[in-house]
Amino acid sequence: MKVSELKYERVSLESVTGEIEKNLAIIRSAGSAGEVLKAREKLLEIMEEFSTAKSIAHMRYTLNTADEFYLREMEYYDEAGPKFENYLYQYATAMLESPFRSELEKELSPVLFKYFEATSKAMSPEIIDDMVEENRLTTEYSKLMSGMTFDFRGESIPLSILRRYMKDDDRDTRKEAYEVLGNGLEKHSGELDSLFEKLVKVRDRMAKKMGYKNFIELAYYRLGRISFDEKMVEKFRNNVLKDIVPVVSRLKLENAKRMGIEDFKLYDNDVYLPGGDPKPILDRDEIFRAAQIMYRDMSRETGEFFDMMMETEAFDVDSRKNKWGGGYCTYFPKYRQPFILANFNGTSADIDVVTHEAGHAFASYMTRNNRFALELNVGGMETAETHSMSMEFFAEKYMDRFFGKDATRYKYMHVFDALSFIPYGTMVDYFQHIVYANPDMTPGERNETWKKLESEFRPYLSTEGIPYLSKGTRWQYQMHIYEHPFYYIDYCLAQVVAFEFLLESLEDYDGAFRKYVRFVSQGGEALFEDLIKEAGLVSPFEDGALKNLAAEVEKLLNDLRAQF
Ligand code: ZN
Q: Which protein residues have a CB closer than 5 Å to ligand 1 (ion)?
């Protein structure tokens, strides 16, 4: 069935509440493990119906944000969402407290019970009001940012358009765009500071109500993290500082010199090649045809996956009026159907849609019949991003079809950008650790903290002379910091593992790809560290892991550059 033909009907919470509560009661008072398992099956059916309906409504809304019907449906799920989450929390707690727990753990999976533990520590009915407040504040931030316009060369444009000029080939244009950005943000600095202040306070309050020292521990549980903790992240961070930062700094400065830049500024950071970024040589239909050939060539599994995506018309990539401006990959569990939304604009980002987003969709496809797919999904965010970022790298072999003679230049930019991301992403994460450990910081102290971190993690660049941003405020347009706290280190961990797959694929493509398919197929049913071990890779948390990686990626970059 085509995605456009999927039937939608609201699954109201009222209509399933009775059934949910009945089965929760059965789990709590069951006389045998068998009874618990039966009630779980019933709950899973409801979960599948509810989350499928919610995802379809969201998808239809993003296809046309002016559609009144789906707008109302979205509003409904926004309101019902926290209540539904409360049921998931009750389900997790009931499973953990069952007198048949050890039997259930054997029958189901110990990983699932670890996940239940995180879920049960992630919320409590006494913080529901605070959660609603937090949702309200993040929505306010998102509205503020998407409604913000910047006066650029006589036009009033949103940040999404300004971003293009922020990485323009012409240095003066970039500088101008950053000045416009700084001046524009400064006009809203009061709101940006006060929204963040309120978010820090409400998150800190939730954590303290639940008996945690501060928000950090609660945030880890909320992300369902069962594979790594604060201590391990600290170790990773120190390794990034020690082993990646010096290499990235050297490469950045050398590269800038080749482009004639002597004083490296923030506005030079996203430019890798003179003459601008390589652009795809194909139009939309050709991109999909090339992707289909690529996926069929990669493996049987990816070929079948991509054929299915094409047959079910599971992509919507044309920009049009009233379509939501971002991009995402989603999944409709009841129909075992992934879906990708994007807005093609003729840049290399279009290719990321058929590699990165398709990597996410491939993971949903490969885990569609897994026993715990509804509860554990494709894994934690670190695992999910490993699926997509690795697919970007496995696709590099085919880039001449998408970029023609610029393929090597594209690979150079792609690999360089991915390596430089690791220090930045780690800094975004560290900033949040400091902020939530010290919830009483003033806005000025937060900016000072950011500035200090910039000098440690990106010592090669300067913000001097850029209005407002020179005060250490760059974090205010990093939306994750407001909207998805602590969801950022996941990208960095995934990037490291994806690099390991890349390096191995250069030695033995097919061997590396088989390992990748095994990694993906297990979804969330194995822990991140076990998946890594099984694939014969080095854990990003291990001492020395990043040192070797940085050296090998540097060598790869030099090899690529020697080819153009
Ligand atoms: Zn992703």
A: 388
